[in-house]
Design a protein that fits this description.
- This protein is α+β, with helices and mostly antiparallel strands and 434 residues long.
- It folds into two domains: 2-19 and 233-429, UDP-n-acetylglucosamine1-carboxyvinyl-transferase, Chain; 22-230, UDP-n-acetylglucosamine1-carboxyvinyl-transferase, Chain.
- It is built from 14 helices and 23 strands.
- The protein has helices spanning 22-31, 48-59, 85-88, 98-105, 124-132, 166-176, 192-203, 235-247, 263-272, 311-319, 338-344, 374-386, 397-402, 406-412, and strands at 2-7, 13-17, 39-42, 63-68, 71-75, 107-111, 136-140, 143-147, 155-157, 182-186, 207-209, 215-219, 228-230, 251-255, 274-277, 283-288, 297-300, 323-329, 348-352, 355-360, 368-370, 390-394, 416-421.
- Helix 6 (166-176) links the parallel strand 9 and strand 10.
- Helix 10 (311-319) packs parallel to helix 12 (374-386).
- The protein is globular, with a radius of gyration of 22 Å.
- It starts with a strand and ends in a 13-residue tail after the last strand.
- The relative contact order is 0.15.
- The protein binds uridine-diphosphate-2(N-acetylglucosaminyl) butyric acid.
């Protein structure tokens, strides 16, 4: 296992290229299975989650290969409905296979996802949608088995207690595109990743209207074609670098960004004193106001609200800003595993239910810290960049699931970040649990 050693104190400066979106690409790999023709996906980030998905798709019988640094070819002439348990159980996003398998081969078997470090993540809404469309669902020894042989169009509400579901909506759309009749999905997610999935499906011949709103209408077709599709830029990755620039009081240019996907986040940053300027299409200049940053309040919500996937990084930023910031987590109310680690670095944060109250402004100190999930890893790395001394981030395999070449990109921006084998860790930097 690798660790990252960060020596804090350098201001981020220079240009950084935004990669393709992981959360858009993953369901698109699954969507390629809806046709028996060849699909080419471009701007796919090089991440372990993507490689996992490719391996699963290959086990399902599709011919899949990487044909360029960020392009994949998927040709699923014939596929079967049983993804390999050992691979599927390792990656939550493999649930996105459910819709395409049920639609294309009328059967699917996927493991029921278990506990997750960011909180309770049931799939009841995914199953509800399929059931409403006539699928028979059973649970045997932790495996969800779906029989879609009698699927029909339906009018259904797919929202839940926490609002809309992103991958649940993706599954319902992918199931409906090959189901005869007109299916309406109310309470659908309107994240850019869902809009991009609909855009790809339309290129394949699907009939979808309402993408980007909470009400989608899908007219099932007999078959879909392959297509060539370019994945949208990763809005969460882009925002993570914006926070990095703000935390180090640096100045960077993000290249290949889709600024319109970052509305709620950019508003909070601007109000706090981060200067954002769209100097040319696809570029965003980021720097902090010389008069300093102000604390902020955020509530995470489904899109277009403030994304839960930026809550941990925003928490790290708040630690560097004098005053009280309040972060309320409404999507995953217990997604706060980064907080005990930030406390190890000298942060002052108290947790009251789903609210993190941060008294910022004190200089963070480097420490050995443990990454618990993807976004917590990013938050701890950013905290390390702003801290005094050395920070060692353990378990960065979480980071490699979702940030393409983050250590390399940070080095190009002037940060002192080194990837090392865990064996190189000096005893003084071992954590009590190691
Ligand atoms: N929910 C249910 N029942 C369901 C599905 C979801 O109650 O059947 C609840 C969840 O427990 C949560 C809320 O609904 O409280 C939203 O969950 P959602 O289904 O939207 O999450 P997801 O589709 O499993 C995707 C991203 C996550 C991101 C969330 C929220 C992918 C592959 N994953 O997950 O990304 O946090 O949407 O925006 O797209 C990440 O990239 O680090 C990550 C965790």
């Amino acid at each position: 296992m690798d660790i990252l050693r960060i020596r804090g104190g350098n201001k981020l400066a220079g240009e950084v290229e935004v990669s393709g979106s992981k959360n858009a690409a993953l369901p698109q790999f699954a969507a390629a299975l809806l046709s028996d023709q060849e699909t080419i996906l471009e701007n796919v980030p090089d991440l372990s989650d993507i490689r996992f998905m490719a391996e699963i798709i290959s086990h399902l019988g599709a011919d899949i290969s990487k044909i360029g640094p960020s392009s994949w070819k998927i040709h699923p002439l014939k596929i079967h409905p049983d993804p390999p348990y050992e691979l599927v159980r390792k990656m939550r996003a493999s649930i996105c296979l459910l819709g395409p398998l049920v639609a294309r081969v009328k059967r699917a078997k996927v493991p029921m996802p278990g506990g997750c470090v960011i909180g309770h993540r049931p799939i009841d809404l995914h199953l509800h949608a399929l059931k409403e469309m006539g699928a028979e669902i059973s649970l045997n020894q932790g495996i969800v088995e779906v029989d879609g042989s009698a699927m029909k169009a339906g009018n259904l509400f797919i929202g839940g207690r926490h609002g809309s579901t992103v991958t649940g909506t993706a599954n319902a759309i992918m199931a409906a595109v090959l189901t005869p009749g007109i299916t309406t999905l109310d309470g659908a997610a309107c994240e850019p990743e869902i809009v991009d999935l609909c855009c790809m499906l339309k290129k394949m011949g699907a009939k979808i209207s309402g993408a980007g709103s909470h009400l989608l209408s899908i007219e099932g077709v007999d078959q879909l074609n392959g297509c060539v599709h370019r994945v949208i830029p990763d809005r969460i990755e882009a925002a993570t670098y914006m926070i990095g620039a703000a935390m180090t009081r640096g100045k960077i240019v993000l290249k290949g960004i889709e600024a319109s996907h970052l509305g709620a986040f950019s508003k909070v940053m601007r109000e706090s004193g981060v200067l954002l300027n769209n100097s040319q299409k696809g570029n965003l200049d980021v720097q902090t106001d010389p008069s300093g940053l102000s604390p902020f309040e955020i509530i995470t919500l489904p899109y277009p609200g403030f994304p839960t996937d930026l809550q941990a990084q925003a928490c790290a930023l708040a630690c560097t800003i004098p005053g009280l910031s309040i972060l309320t987590e409404r999507v995953y109310p217990s997604r706060f595993m980064h907080i005990p680690e930030l406390l190890r670095m000298g942060a002052t944060v108290s947790l009251e239910g789903a609210n993190a109250i941060i008294k910022g402004g004190k200089k963070l100190n480097g420490a050995p810290v443990m990454a618990s999930d993807l976004r917590a890893s990013a938050a701890l790395i950013l905290a390390g960049l702003a801290a005094e001394g050395e920070t060692w981030v353990h378990r960065i395999y979480h980071l490699d699931r979702g940030y393409e070449f983050m250590d390399e990109k940070l080095r190009k921006l002037g940060a002192e970040v080194e990837r090392l084998p865990e064996s190189s860790l000096p005893p003084a930097f071992r954590r009590p649990t190691d």
